[in-house]
UniProtKB/TrEMBL annotation:
NCBIfam families: PRK13291.1 (NF009807). Keywords: Hydrolase. InterPro entries: DinB-like, DinB/YfiT-like. This is Metal-dependent hydrolase. Transmembrane segments: none annotated. One of its GO terms (molecular function) is hydrolase activity. It comes from Dyadobacter pollutisoli. The keyword Acyltransferase does not apply. Residues 35-167 form the DinB-like domain.
Length: 179
């Protein structure tokens, strides 16, 4: 398997110009399902499996799960900012450095899965409450100056959810770890 397939198991995110209500609803469902999917896949994994990189020179599954929690907490906050301010400039973070912090390397995966579970409950409530005007609200990323609509944010985090789930799922499949 080539390195691009290991790095991008479902391909790279491709933003659309617009999203239908059906696409938005489907993307919210993908976000909603992620914590349960991680629980079902990783629930019985021991430290050896959790400390296995999902690809050569990649994060361990432990770091990956902690990264998803970090990323989705930031996404939830960014959505709330966009809902309450006009085109706010978000605060970026150094995800690679966050993945190297001690808690990302040592903490139990269960902590981040439970964090994801509860953040996603709140986030999905917010996302499901959005109407067409809310979905058109935006924020700005200061590093790029790019303005992003919330319907695209939802699509990108649906992709992000499945992207990282597939990293762990396909590692399990390659190593015959599935029960």
């Amino acid at each position: 398997m080539d390195s691009d397939q290991l790095r991008y198991p479902i391909g790279k995110f491709q933003a659309q110009d617009s999203y239908t209500p059906t696409e938005v609803k489907s993307n919210i469902q993908i976000i909603s399902a992620l914590p349960s999917k991680f629980i079902n896949l990783l629930g019985a994994w021991d430290d050896d499996k959790l400390n296995t990189p999902y690809r050569p020179d990649g994060w361990t599954v432990r770091q990956l799960v902690h990264h998803v929690a970090d990323s989705h907490i930031n996404a939830y906050t960014r959505c709330r900012l966009a809902m309450t301010e006009d085109n706010p400039t978000i605060k970026p973070y150094e995800e690679q450095l966050w993945a190297e912090l001690p808690d990302a390397k040592m903490a139990q995966v269960e902590l981040s899965i439970q964090l994801l579970r509860y953040v996603h409950l709140r986030w999905v409530l917010l996302l499901n409450s959005m109407d067409e005007n809310d979905l058109a609200r935006t924020y700005v990323h200061p590093a790029t100056g790019r303005v992003t609509r919330l319907d695209e944010v939802i699509a990108s985090y649906a992709w992000h959810s499945e992207h990282h789930y597939q990293h762990a799922y396909r590692l399990a499949a390659r190593n015959n770890w599935q029960s």
